[in-house]
């Protein structure tokens, strides 16, 4: 299908796909990276920008793991000159095919304008990079904001997931490019503890950058700060 195009030169590749893979998302990231790299080889354009859309909100595919697929899609950012467009809020909860194509197009333009400025992977919204337990009851979320300020809405919950159970973390505050979460005193963190944000098929964003673009959903394993106070 692609081979007949190999003599053409491209300014960029725009990619919007993933719904059909959401039933089994675990290997998507590896296959996605292989696709990007193979196309650059085929077109003899090793630095060809590859801009792609992370799956939006959608509730129609009840058995599919759209949250897991979105996490796998981030693997594309491990390749240089790639950009990911976050579309939480642009989808239709009751329709597989979103009507709001215009806003997605604007975000793709933003991605194209920034992919060379951030050649190691660009995201249109804040991108969580790590979760660190600094004290017994405090977890810091670290973000890459790509030079843009961001903010968090009040009275929203993050999710702590461990041992197959989910707990709501209601107390949080923003400090610069970090979000500090408070863990209840009566809750101890297990080795498998993770922090989740917008981890569902059809979430509602509450972290935004200054342009009004949402943060990418995430699931982060909580790392230990060896210097934390007991």
TrEMBL record:
Q: Which domain of life is it from?
A: Bacteria
Q: Which residues form the Sialate O-acetylesterase domain?
A: 7-97
Question: Does the keyword field hold Hydrolase?
Answer: yes
A molecular function (GO) held by this record is: sialate O-acetylesterase activity
Name the UniProt key words of this record, in alphabetical order: Hydrolase
Q: Name one GO biological process term.
A: carbohydrate metabolic process
Q: Which SUPFAM superfamilies match?
A: SGNH hydrolase
Tell me where the transmembrane regions lie.
none
Q: What is this protein called?
A: Sialate O-acetylesterase domain-containing protein
Species of provenance: Lactococcus lactis subsp. cremoris (strain SK11)
